[in-house]
């Protein structure tokens, strides 16, 4: 099994503020959908609650400390280890946030799909700093700012060495 973290983060590793993203990148949403469809997606409760509805064609696993939390249509875990134990049959589950969950999942992660948004943002959630002694960049694809994207960004893929 290959565990992949997928995120969009600013130059300062900003993920979001007040449980929302601080940018709107339609092409990044399309990439997220393409990569995660058909897989388990592991997230924290606040990330899950930021969605208007369940994301189609994905199995949602929500990590929470609340033992009584039981939203319809999701699997519940109380630790990253428990969440990873729920992904039987999926050779590539995705960790999709938020900041605390990324930090907890980092030791178990084999691949990082990071959209680096070129800007510095005010945030209250941050992506963990990757130790580049342990990670190798295997691809990078730059996208200019345009009429649909207020910021330029780069799709980066890192594999654990």
Structural features, described:
- The mean pLDDT is 97.
- The strands form 2 sheets. This protein has an 8-stranded mixed sheet, sandwiched between helices.
- It is 18% helix and 34% strand.
- The chain has 161 residues and is an alpha/beta fold.
- β3, α2 (45-49) and β4 form a beta-alpha-beta unit.
Largest sheet: 8 strands, mixed
Strand order of the largest sheet: 5-4-3-6-1-7-10-9
Radius of gyration: 15 Å
Which structural category fits the helices and strands? alpha/beta
Bin the helical content: 10-25%
Q: Determine the oligomeric state from the structure.
A: single chain
If helices are DSSP runs of H or I spanning 4 or more residues, what is the number of helices? Answer: 4
Low-confidence blocks of residues: none
Overall 3D form: globular
Q: Please tally the β strands and state the result.
A: 10
Cα(first) to Cα(last) distance is 16 Å
% residues in beta strands: 25-35%
Order of helices and strands: EEHEHEEHEHEEEE
Mean pLDDT: 97
């Amino acid at each position: 099994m290959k565990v992949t973290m997928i995120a969009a983060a600013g130059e300062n590793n900003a993920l979001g503020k007040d449980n929302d993203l601080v940018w709107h990148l339609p092409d990044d949403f399309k990439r997220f959908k393409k990569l995660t469809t058909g897989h388990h997606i592991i997230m924290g409760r606040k990330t899950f609650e930021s969605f208007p509805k369940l994301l189609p064609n994905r199995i949602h696993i929500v990590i929470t400390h609340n033992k009584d939390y039981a939203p319809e249509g999701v699997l519940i875990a109380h630790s990253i280890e428990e969440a990873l134990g729920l992904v039987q049959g999926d050779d590539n589950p995705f960790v999709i946030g938020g900041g605390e969950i990324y930090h907890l999942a980092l030791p178990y992660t084999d691949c990082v799909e990071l959209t680096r948004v070129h800007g510095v943002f005010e945030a209250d959630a941050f992506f963990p700093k990757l130790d580049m002694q342990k990670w190798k960049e295997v691809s990078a694809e730059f996208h200019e700012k345009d009429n649909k994207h207020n910021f330029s960004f780069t799709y980066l893929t890192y594999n654990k060495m």
